[in-house]
Design brief:
5-stranded antiparallel β-sheet; globular; about 20% helix; single chain; alpha+beta; 9 helices
Length: about 450
Amino acid sequence: MSVIGEERVRGGLFKDISAEDEETQPTEIESLCMNCYENGSTRLLLTKIPFFREIIISSFTCPHCHWTNTEIQSAGRIQEQGVSYTLNIKCKEDMNREVVKTDSATTRIPELDFEIPAFTQKGSLSTIEGLLDRAVAGLEQEQPIRRATDPDVADKIDQFIQRLKRLKDVEEEFTLIIDDPSGNSFIENPCAPQKDQALSVSHYNRTPEQNASLGIDGTEPDPQEKPANDLESMRNEVLVFDTNCPECNAPASTNMKLVQIPHFKEVIIMATNCDSCGHRTNEVKSGGATEELGTKITLHVTDPSDMSRDLLKSETCSVLIPEVEFELGMAALGGKFTTLEGLLKDIKELVVMKNPFTCGDSSTTDTSEKLEQFGKKIDKIMAGEMDVHVVLDDPAGNSYLQNIYAPDPDPEMKIEKYTRTFEQNEDLGLNDMKTEGYGEVQS
């Protein structure tokens, strides 16, 4: 095994970014300058940034023509789904929101009919204002040539640049959309752990064209390849397939099994355990169809023993804790089969421990203190020292919370069935789904 392979297995190839780590030094290699075609030098640093995952920072300098070039490239894995952020910018404070934008992300401002296509800019860690400054600099770069060759076009671009600059003063509200098929972009939520009313996040399945642009094969195995009479044998079999660890990228195995949950339904559980770094993860997919009605489960937590209740949270389920003004949107933690305590630990880890804006240069005292207090409240809930209600709201009806009094009703748990709204059906992709006559031959 090569030296790089050994480092990857030990999880030491990518170091956490830190200004105090004097041992982490960039690697310097000789490179060809694309400006004067003399030899220059490239410095590479492999590091980690929370939510941006592993990255490669490269900086090229040429001692002959003094040309320089700096880039940030994502070295992390492509996520299972793409992500789209829509931010309604209303005040100048919104311009300070920090943004992680990968090179595969498309940036749009509908009010100006302005778009920065994917793969036209390198990945960056910036702010909303920084994104606008970068767009202005890109448009101004070729203006001297345009003024000489096509003055009319240059004048129109000058007017458009002025409109972009006025957006930085937020004289009127506008919308910023970042759509990233790789799922690795991110916009800061300054209201964390509360829900950001100005920011909406949606996840989606990539199209074959988007998979091709990312250089991956998005084809899925044909479910008809598995004969129907083998379904019973699948229930008694643990399927194993090779994958890579999402933390250290070392080879790992994922186990998958069909499981029947008592008093509920059949689900698919997938679990990955990395022998190299010890990382463990599990994911749950519904084994059945979307229910006719949505389900809302409300549990009044009255005793520490409630933490041991089995819990199935599907990828379409949102979690609310009204007493701490907390709401977790669907797909934020994916599908999980765990306990109530396990869910609360995952919420604390996501909101407090893995938040990229609570440490380093990005942190502010108010945000850090607010999230620290939220973490303490979660600890009190897990210890049974705080009277709260935990609400699981699943429009697809595929989530479950154990009734410890079964088959009798649980006095502390309330289960409500409700009719989905048009917006909820839209999020689930049901409005445009046609099932009538699906198997009929069209004439």
